[in-house]
Each structure stands twice: as C-alpha cells, then as structure tokens.
Description:
A: alpha+beta, 3-stranded mixed beta sheet, two-stranded antiparallel sheet, B: 0% strand
Amino acid sequence: MKLPALNNKSERPAELNRREFFKSGAAVASVTLAPGVTLMAFGGEASANADPGKRWGMLIDVNKCSTDCNACVTACSEENGWKLDGNPETDPQWIRKIDLKHKETGREASLPMMCQHCETPPCVDVCPTGASFKRVDGIVLVDKHICIGCRYCMMACPFKARSFVHEEIEDQKSNAPRGKGTVESCTLCVHRVDAGRVPACVESCSATGNGAMMFGDLNDPNSEIAQALKNYPSMGLRDDLRVNPGVRYTNL
Amino acid sequence: MKRLVTTLLVLIGLSTGAAMAGSTYPDIPKAVGAPHPEGNDYMRLNHMRLLRHDRNLTVHDGDRSIKYSIKECVACHAVMGPDALPISVQEKGHFCRNCHEFAAVKIDCFQCHNSKPEDGFIDLLKQNPPATDDEIQAYLDGMSQ
C-alpha cells in the first residue's frame, strides 16, 4: 500500500480522508493485519467501468415525440423483461408515455417518463439500507440484493418513476434481474451502457425515425448531447426541487 | 473409557461412510466448458462468497469483467430437461437445487435471477456438433460485453 509521503512526523496531510486513503492505493490494496487475516480494499475506479468523470444523461425533444408512438416503452419492456399486468396501481414503472394538453392554448404534447437519474436523488437520501444508490457516472440504481422493499424511495421520488414488484417473477432477462419484494426502476440500461451501447429506448426511438431521444455524456463538452444542451433551451422536470435531473426535455 | 470412545468413533465412521455411499448423496450433473481452475472442492465451499464479492463490484462499480457471475454459473451448469431445453430451479434435477436440497440451504438468488441460461447460450448448447470448450469460453467472455 502506497501512502502519501509525510514531510515530518507531526504533519498530517490535510485532505486525507478514508475515501482518498483507499483511492491512493492501486486497484487492489491489501493490508495484512495478522497471519491469515488480510484487509482487502478494492478501490474500484481503476478497473471498473463506471467512470467518475462521466455523467450519463438523456435529452428528449418533445416536438419529435409523437402521441401514437410507444416504441420506447415496448423496447424497454422487451429489453428488461417487464410486462404490464393491467393494474395501474401495481404496474412496473420503468418507462411510460405521458400525454399533456395545455389548458389555455390547447397544445398537445407527448413524452416518455422514466427515472430522471437526478444528481441529488431523493430516493437515495431516504433509503434506509443503502440499496438505492447513485453510481459514480450518475446512473441511479437499486441494489436489489440489499433492498428490503420498504418503498420509501417510491414515496420520495417526485416523478413516480419507481415501482414495487408484488408478484413472483420467473424467466427474467439475465441482464435485468428483478424479483418480488424489491423496488425497481429505469436503469438507463446500465448493462448496455457498460458495454458502450445506448439504452434500448433511445435505440428504438432512432429506429422509428422520430429521433426524439438523445443519450450521452453530459460532462463531455464535445458530446452531441452537451452541444445540444448548450445551444438550445431545455428543462429538467420539477426544476424547482433542484434535484438536477440527468434526463432533460426540450420544446416542452 | 478408551474402549467406549473407540467404539463411538467406529460407529460414527461407519454411519458417515454409509451415508456417502448411499443413494442420498446428491447427484451432481456434469457441466460444459472448462473446469474451474480452483477445483470443485473449493467451489463447493466458496461459490457463494465469490458470487457475493463480485456482485457488489458489478452492481455498484459497473465492473463487468468480473470472474464470477451467476449468469455464467447457470450457463455452464445448465441441465437439459426432456424437451432438450434447460430446466429451471423449480424443477427437480437443476444443478443448484440438487446440492442445496441435500444441504437444506435455501437459494435466494433465483428470486430475482433467471435460473436458466440466456437464449444465445441455449442455442450454443443445442449446436450440432456440440460446441467446443473454446467456443463456450468465447461466448462467456463476450457475455457481458
């Protein structure tokens, strides 16, 4: 284990907290406490796919999203293996289409609604077990291994983007494990993103020719999405809550 | 006293031997692909620790190049049913179920995870002539990519 060099014995490095201590080592650092007892620290960042320099996000052009198109929802259902059971109270809420009508002007709009992958996610704040978490690259997920199904996150989410699995499930997609007693939501197709692909909804939206959804790294100033956000007005839903969603809408 | 202890030891030895040789010992279905380099004895004792360690790396850090994933367990250890398709853990004879029933240990994995391999791997298993170890390994390597 490599420790930052100290100038003299009384001086402590000012910013060395536990996190940085672990980060200062290699990908795998180990300390032998006693014979046969080894403390292993896996400082993920070096080998992991989730890149702390990135923030994955999405831009949805509401003008290009048509009311009668459901391609993103179908693609998500296909990719992640969820089905609507016809009961709106218990249906999975990975992604849904919402139709809006302006009361005064009569303008109608349609948009896909899913986990907004907030920068400061309220669902993570309230989770009592740490199951609801944000990856370093901004994707908000549920670790179903430690989710106890308390559903606090569902209450906290301003977008109703999470749902609870009420029934036993069989034949899940191997990339999207989901089961009774846990909360689930859009994963931004994390298995695809880790493999360098785009989420299923975005892919299907391009395939229909509407091209209303754009996916990319918000932190990279040269990415298509960052350029679009820089040049055109857009908004995050419920901007008043200051959760800074990673999913943004334009022409809404 | 010494005689009593010896008798007891012999009795215990005999009964254990009988149980091992009897029909109650689980039948362990053969897997496809290369064997675990750690050896089967190590895997029998430690598979759950390996899985638990690596699942956290994948879920939280997005590390997809991990060594132990349940997707790969159920792929190589698939057991074919009468319809020549892999059976699920609900059915008797599933690889995981065989030993877990014997050891009376409940498996929680399959409440969320599929106990059957993904479609691409099933196609590989049905291939004629059978897929070679190299082909299987290539598929497993590409599984998360």
